[in-house]
Amino acid sequence: KAGVTQTPRYLIKTRGQQVTLSCSPISGHRSVSWYQQTPGQGLQFLFEYFSETQRNKGNFPGRFSGRQFSNSRSEMNVSTLELGDSALYLCASSLGGARDTIYFGEGSWLTVV
Amino acid sequence: QKEVEQNSGPLSVPEGAIASLNCTYSDRGSQSFFWYRQYSGKSPELIMSIYSNGDKEDGRFTAQLNKASQYVSLLIRDSQPSDSATYLCAVSLTGANNLFFGTGTRLTVIP
What we know:
By secondary structure, chain A is an all-beta fold.
């Protein structure tokens, strides 16, 4: 059974640009969550999508957005990149129930220069 | 104000000893509690989940929850060098799909 797949794994962007990250969940999983991990702030919840609808949202500015497609694949977008957006972005998927285990992908390493 | 607090460590224990990891949380409405392990350069993986007060054991791991004290802990018995990793405590007001993480405790098990 394939795990959570994130692409691209590594990318470098310039300040002011935008970036789109992709996440393919485990087959059958309908919930996709996104997290940002930095050395200073740790793992922070961005948002969660379930059946194409944003179900939960963290405390990030509107530059961070996401969407989910009918096949449960998800994308997140960061516009007007700032140096502080440099981080590991992790996607996690689950069946969607409150007690269902979430499984993380390997992450996308974003460096903003 | 941080929602989930953990000692950043590093915590060093000899092989075979018990490692004790602690976590406190600020929101009394938190309902779900999780411990994740993250090896360097890897993604987090779930070790334990706990939802009600008391202890929950799974192999060498025991999670303890005290909602009155807003405290959750993880004990690792017979620690092995392969347990060396960062341990992340996570809590949620609802379920597993929107977690608040602590910054993690780095554990080193010395052979």
